[in-house]
Write a structure and sequence with these properties.
alpha+beta, Tumour Suppressor Smad4, 2 domains, six-stranded antiparallel beta sheet, five-stranded mixed beta sheet, 6 helices, about 15% strand
Length: about 290
């Protein structure tokens, strides 16, 4: 378990909840059926902030680059706000249509509300990381978190208006659930020694992972070409492809193109990364480019 990432996820959730509280601060703001405007504003603000912060904060902690932090935050935050907002609108329309036919019994509407919200936010992470697999991965952490936090909020706000504690509850629990599941269900990743902070972990979730001297790379180096090397996913395997100017070493040997195996050490300049994967494959039986 990467405790640094878990701490960053929890901090992202708490910060998203705090900012949402000051931005909205209205009663029944988590109940879109009671106050549609407040509910829509709350959901779009919280989901956008959470998605943006949980993506951008680990980047800032690892690289200390403000421009890259803002770029990641705006891109992920916009996506995290748009998809849940659309989900809220559809939920409102379906709820009104269902009410006209037959009244939904008990707390079923609240249960469905939190489920919809979890699915919408998880869909944002799925689109952001490129695939249904990452949508399912995020959903397994966010769904139980929203159901637990939502039940606590609904029990409390049944008697009084929402207070700041409710935003901290949903933010903290969501960050905790997401952080635990996202790290535990990882398949392939790069680890870099972070000294007293432990390790910086970079998840290989997309089809390609770029490392180079560009603020738009997944890992930004302070030297070398715009792209020093990239890691490409193909049929469940990861292939390291270095540029001509990259001077990339794999297990102390210069390489240009190589299939990666668990435990491989990648060195580019003064940066060293260790590749890990939970997909058990033998490099010896797979044909490679000479």
């Amino acid at each position: 378990m990467n405790w640094l990432f878990l701490l960053e996820s929890c901090a992202s959730g708490l910060l998203a909840g705090l900012i949402t509280y000051f931005a909205v601060n209205e009663s029944n703001s988590w109940n879109v059926l009671v106050d549609f405007r407040a509910g829509l504003l709350t959901v779009s603000t919280f989901c956008g902030l959470f998605c943006g912060l949980v993506v951008a904060i680990p980047v800032f902690v690892a690289e200390k680059k403000l421009f890259k932090f803002l770029n990641k935050f705006v891109f992920a935050g916009s996506l995290g706000a748009v998809i849940p907002t659309i989900g809220v609108i559809f939920f409102k329309l379906l709820a009104e249509a269902a009410t006209n036919i037959e009244r939904v019994p008990g707390k079923t509407d609240r249960f469905l509300w939190w489920m919809m919200l979890a699915c919408a936010l998880s869909a944002s992470f799925g689109v952001l990381n490129g695939g249904y697999k990452n949508f399912s991965r995020a959903l397994m952490g966010i769904m139980p978190a929203f159901l637990v936090a939502g039940e606590l909020i609904d029990q409390k706000t049944a008697l009084e208006s929402i207070k700041i504690i409710d935003y901290f509850v949903i933010g903290g629990v969501t960050g905790l659930g997401y952080g635990i599941v996202w790290d535990l269900l990882r398949e392939s990743w790069l680890d870099e020694d972070a000294g007293k902070l432990g390790i910086f972990r970079f998840y290989l979730d997309a089809d390609s992972f770029w490392v180079g001297n560009s603020k738009f790379c997944d890992i930004t180096l302070d030297f070398g070409a715009e792209v020093v090397f990239q890691i490409i996913e193909k049929d469940g395997m990861h292939i390291l492809e270095a540029s001509e100017e990259g001077n990339v070493q794999l297990n102390e040997y210069m390489v240009r193109y190589k299939l990666l195996a668990d435990g491989d050490v990648i060195k580019a300049g003064n940066r060293t990364f260790r590749y890990h994967t939970r997909v058990a494959r033998s490099r010896d039986i797979v044909p490679e480019v000479a």
